[in-house]
């Protein structure tokens, strides 16, 4: 594996590395928090709040359109679940980024110990 | 709310963010049905119009607009969600994070972005279809209300005072058809409407298979 290259002019040991743990964590946070503008999760939650009022019920397209309204409402229910799953997956991605950042921390500690032993 | 074209409806179009709303054209549909029924009592050859119109109610274009507005909002939110995730990922410079796990995460971002754009496109198409249906159905309700009012007025004035050309035609048809023949006409009308119901089932099936891509 290639050695991590130093980035000149970024200042400090941490930011000079190719793995900026802070940046990775911040990316994870940005998926779910709104500190730096609307997050992907907030966009989804904004969309997910109104489906109960989008359902057509039985009387929107007459007797002849009943199959269509039924099908539409099934799609609304499915989309509601799907948006919930998408929001969950974003939370999952945030956790994965935290784990990735943690792995780098663990590897750093291990490396330091190896260097000290040598 | 959406600035899409909406045929004016008394009572406006309710917001999908609020419960309730709709039903403002119900009285117009019931009045039209009653007028057709009244005309059919005077002129039995008009029974088929009562049947035909009865099967298209209750319809509520306000609910269709409401659902269309909802899909339209979902479309932009889902699309913004995928795009903002991509931006956030791309904004982390290569100098901060450049490794295999970044590439793996990049694939997930691609997958999420593609999935959200597909879902957003489906939601946009549904919004468009519902919008067209809402406007067509509004026009249908207005058209039938006008037509039923004229029909009832003509049937009444004809019965009271001799009537004009339309009344003459309807009267002649009513006299020409026996009860059995009228029933046959109604039966063929019912069969035709059943066929349309089957077509609607087919469209619903297609709607589910082709238009819900990414939303399930």
Please explain how this structure is put together.
The complex is a heterodimer of chains A (118) and B (216). In chain A, 62% of the residues lie in helices and 0% in strands. Chain A is built from three helices and no strands. In chain A, α1 (21-32) runs antiparallel to α3 (66-117) and α2 (40-48) runs antiparallel to α3 (66-117). Residues 1-17 of chain A have low confidence and may be disordered. Chain B is an all-alpha fold. Chain B contains six helices and no strands. In chain B, α1 packs antiparallel against α2 (47-54), α1 (26-42) runs parallel beside α4 and α2 (47-54) runs parallel beside α6 (179-211). Classes of the chains: A mainly alpha (118), B mainly alpha (216).
Task: Summarize the topology.
The complex is a heterodimer of chains A (118) and B (216).
Chain A: H1 21-32, H2 40-48, H3 66-117
Chain B: H1 26-42, H2 47-54, H3 61-91, H4 100-161, H5 165-176, H6 179-211
Helix pairs in contact in B: 1-2, 1-4, 2-6, 3-4
Number of strands of chain A: 0
The major pleated sheet of chain B works out as: none
Overall geometry of chain A: rod-shaped
Shape of chain B: elongated
Weakly predicted, low-confidence segments of chain B: none
Helical/strand content category of chain A = mainly alpha
Secondary-structure element sequence of chain B?
HHHHHH
> Which band does the percent of strand residues of chain A land in?
under 5%
Q: Which pair of chains has the greatest number of interface residues, and how are they split between the two chains?
A: A-B, 57 and 63 residues
Give the tally of β-strands of chain B: 0
Number of DSSP helical runs of chain B: 6
What is the helix content of chain A?
Answer: 55-70%
Strand content of chain B: under 5%
Task: Sum this structure up briefly.
Chain A is an all-alpha fold. Helix content of chain A is 62%, strand content 0%.
């Amino acid at each position: 594996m290639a050695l991590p290259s130093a980035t000149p002019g970024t200042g400090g040991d941490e930011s000079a590395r190719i793995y900026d743990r802070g940046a990775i964590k911040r990316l994870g946070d940005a998926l779910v928090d709104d500190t730096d503008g609307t997050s992907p999760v907030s966009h989804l939650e904004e969309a997910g709040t109104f489906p109960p009022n989008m359902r057509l019920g039985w009387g929107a397209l007459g007797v002849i359109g009943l199959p269509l309204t039924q099908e539409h409402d099934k799609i609304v229910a499915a989309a509601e679940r799907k948006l919930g799953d998408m929001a969950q997956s974003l939370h999952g991605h945030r956790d994965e980024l935290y784990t990735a950042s943690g792995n780098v921390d663990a590897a750093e500690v291990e490396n330091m110990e190896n260097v000290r032993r040598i | 709310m959406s600035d899409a074209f909406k045929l004016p409806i008394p009572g406006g179009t309710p917001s999908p963010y609020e419960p309730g709303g709709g039903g403002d054209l119900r009285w117009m549909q019931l009045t039209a049905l009653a007028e057709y029924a009244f005309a059919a009592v005077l002129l039995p050859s008009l029974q088929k119009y009562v049947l035909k119109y009865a099967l298209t109610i209750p319809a509520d274009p306000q609910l269709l607009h409401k659902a269309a507005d909802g899909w339209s909002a979902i479309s932009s939110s889902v699309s913004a969600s995928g795009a903002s995730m991509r931006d956030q990922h791309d904004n982390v410079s290569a100098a901060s994070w450049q490794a295999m796990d970044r590439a793996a995460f990049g694939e997930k971002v691609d997958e999420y972005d593609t999935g959200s754009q597909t879902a957003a496109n489906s939601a946009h198409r549904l919004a468009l279809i519902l919008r067209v249906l809402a406007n067509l159905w509004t026009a249908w309700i207005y058209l039938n209300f006008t037509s039923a009012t004229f029909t009832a007025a003509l049937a009444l004035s004809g019965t009271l005072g001799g009537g004009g050309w339309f009344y003459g035609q309807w009267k002649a048809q009513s006299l020409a058809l026996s009860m059995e023949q009228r029933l046959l006409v109604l039966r063929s009308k019912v069969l035709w409407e059943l066929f349309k119901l089957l077509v609607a089932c087919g469209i619903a099936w297609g709607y589910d298979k082709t238009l819900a891509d990414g939303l399930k």
